[in-house]
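Final report, results section. Input specification for complex C-07:
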Amino acid sequence: MKKKISLIMCGLLVVGTLFGCGNAAQTGGTEVNNESAQTDGEGTEEVEETKQDASTEQTEIKIWHDGDEAIMKTIADRVNASLAEKKITVSFEKKTGLTDQLQLYGNDAANGPDMYLYAHDSLGTFVEMGILAPIDDMADAGVMGDLLPMTVEAGSYNGEQYLVPVYFETLLFLYNKELWNGDLPTSTEDLYEYMKANTDTAAGTYAVVNQHSTAYNVAPFINGFGGYIIDKDGNPGLNNQETKDAVEYNKKFAALQADGDYNTVTTLFNEKKAAAIIGGPWLISGIKDAGIDLGIKSLSDFVLPNGKALAPYSGVQGVGVMKHAAENKKEAVTEVLKAIAAPEVGIDLANNSNCAPANVKSYEDAGVAGNEMIMAMKETADTAQPMPNIPQMSVMWAPAEGLLAAVNKSGEDINTVAEEFEKQAETAIADMQ
Amino acid sequence: MRRSNKRLPWAYSLPALILVGIVIVFPIIYTGYLSLTNMNLYHWFDFEIIGFSNYERALLKLDSGFLSALFTTIIWTAVNMALQVVLAYFIAMALNVDGLRLNRLYKTLLMFPWAMPAYVSILLWRVGMYNTEFGLLNKVLTALGMEKVNFLAENTPAFISCLVLNLWMALPFMIMMIDGALQSIDKSYYESAQLDGAGFLARNIYITIPALRGIIAPAVIMTTFTTFKQFDIIYLLTMQKGALSGATLQTIITYAHQNAFVSNNYGLSSAVSIIIFVLIVVFSLGTNRGLREES
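Structure output:
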């Protein structure tokens, strides 16, 4: 008897273990919950049937993102209001680790998104994977015409447009008005002189701090010197003479900027031990909480010894369309792209969340025009370069930052290490194939 | 009847076998399968079997960089294990001294580093101990009138910094194991030895250490593997994306990660994983055989 009971229990355990592999949608009725559909990974046919039934009344466009929920709510509210008459509803779903999620679900019409909103630098990766559709026939000149050229460029890959830019970010010169002495310099050399005169590393007080060994934060120098981390054809440029000149030039600033770690430099600025920081809009909420009287200046206002302005990278948040949605929901997607690109969305984003809109017309709004940080970012957009969106860029951060850390922190010779990290970069790029 | 008796244990074990199969065996087999394909960014959905060319490429990575990483890994494992066992032995002995007050409290406190999530501990040490501006060590140095030191900027100090942190995190487990083993030794051995005039050293060499060896061997083997394949301490202290410290320390796992796992080339990464897997299995078989022969 005991044996039989034990065997039955084992059988039940086996069934229970394998039950999780079953098709949940088969057990349910016609109502399919989005969340359960995502996690089940199955039940494709049932979900599609349900969607088709629903499409006669309302078309739902699901957009995945990995950003601030408040920002997405702002976009959703405005877009849904403008598309209400057309019976199109947009819903945003946050997916942490969006790149990995899209690698899994990008081509899955039932469980994946119809569109996604994310930084433009992953664009090439998604296009090469074959999950994105070009939007040239869905977003015409009427949609794209009013968008800042830099943001439009960020959303194009191999000559085709894949993203409608929504807002963008770039580095700024943020300073504490209480701590800064005198006028702000207009050249990097004057800035360096100010730093030398107002930095006491032993006491832990600094004039300007920057993440001096992070490629994104050194890009203003590299781009300004005419160097590059990687070119449009996927060739690394760490051993390029202009890049080396820029890294060497940045080194003297780095010596006066603590260890350059993100946590260190932001804490120094927020604790009023640094008078200025080179950082992005993501620092603003922490700075406000610290009660700092903040001043903002565009990095384009600083001129390098070669006469060119600092040229930071820009990160553009744009919305792209999955291939299956472009085929099955083209009309609705076209309407959504048009609604998202509208200046009203940019105005809402600027006023509610301090985002710099991609639409030029948004800046005509008085509230937006009066926002010091947003206007500084718009000004920087003239010299800013979109981060490269080719897939090879994803393996360039490590060698580029290895080079910077070797020069700034370990005191290595630029020529020796530039060659070494260039080879590392070439190997990493070759390994992608 | 006999046949039924043979099948019965398999039937009882079936749920566990299925679970082990799904959780452990399937991923290994699937990784092996992927290692034979050209699955990468450019062949995400249309990948196909390409034979052993990923293994050829992976083995080509066994260059001077790999050998240097292997050497660092061996030194890292040997130094860590030697220090862990010796320190844990003496701390456990101290905790078992007769008449020690509050010994349970000390044991509980010693467990904290082990109980803390590794990620939290590592970042806590990076900022709270080693940071040039806010770290305790640099605060002490500047209070003594000395210059700040970037402990993680160069290889040797970075290695020592990682070592100290690993000891802090791993010692509690070893102390707990040795402490438990010490309590299982019959006290009468010590009483007899004392009557025979054995001192502290003799008691340790002839009674404690031989009695402990068999009991703590599994813990030592487990910890050796954990230390050998250590990734998070070295990565988070010195190589974290956006916060490289300047040191270029590489163990074989960080080397493999840097060379194969950031490229979205799943075929190549899988081949590297299988090679590391085989290396660890061989290492494990060697260790087990050594233990059997010893016993």
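The interface with chain A takes residues 8, 11-12, 14-15, 18-19, 22, 40-42, 44-45, 57, 127, 131-134, 142, 147-148, 150, 153-154, 241-248, 258-260, 262-265, 268 of chain B (CB under 8 Å). Chain B is about 75% helix and 0% strand. This concludes the modelling results for the funded period.
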